[in-house]
Write a structure and sequence with these properties.
144 residues; 2 domains; 4-stranded antiparallel β-sheet; two-stranded antiparallel ribbon; 23% strand
Length: 144
């Protein structure tokens, strides 16, 4: 299958002028390569390594939030169905390096443009922001 993809110009933009790319990359099992990172003995907190938008049920409280930084995420989205860019919903996410007592899983957030403000979007597809968090367990001194 890779031979067929390579013969038709590889993958990517501007394939017809030779800018497509297809290369075999070595990979490793992350589960075994990062075992020490996820097996912290006596961990009492979790540090985010990615942005995270927690679900309603896992929203941190002042007792579980140790150190965090909310980041404003906003912008525009486009669709071939509409043909124009439209403003998507603005939201806050917890930044990388935020620390919580419990692990935040997060989830997908619907940021579909408002149907009242942008009626031409009505009935088209939804737009989502990836809000799943990636965190590692850490041990911190809470009395510090």
């Amino acid at each position: 299958m890779f031979e067929v993809i390579y013969e038709v110009g590889a993958i990517g933009g501007n394939r017809n002028i030779g800018l497509g790319e297809l290369a075999e990359k070595p990979f490793f099992q992350a589960a075994t390569a990062f075992t020490d990172l996820f097996e912290t003995e006596n961990s009492n907190a979790h540090c985010l390594l990615s942005l995270c938008s927690p679900t309603i049920s896992e929203m941190p409280t002042k007792e579980t939030a140790i150190a965090f930084n909310p980041i404003l995420r906003k912008g525009w989205t486009g669709s071939l169905s509409v043909g124009l860019q439209r403003k998507r919903h603005t939201m806050y996410m917890f930044s990388e390096g935020s620390v919580f007592r419990n692990k935040l899983n997060g989830g997908l957030v619907d940021i579909t443009p408002d149907k009242i403000i942008t009626p031409e979007w009505n009935g088209l597809h939804s737009v989502y922001r990836y809000g799943y968090g990636f965190s590692v367990p850490i041990k911190i001194d809470l009395n510090d």
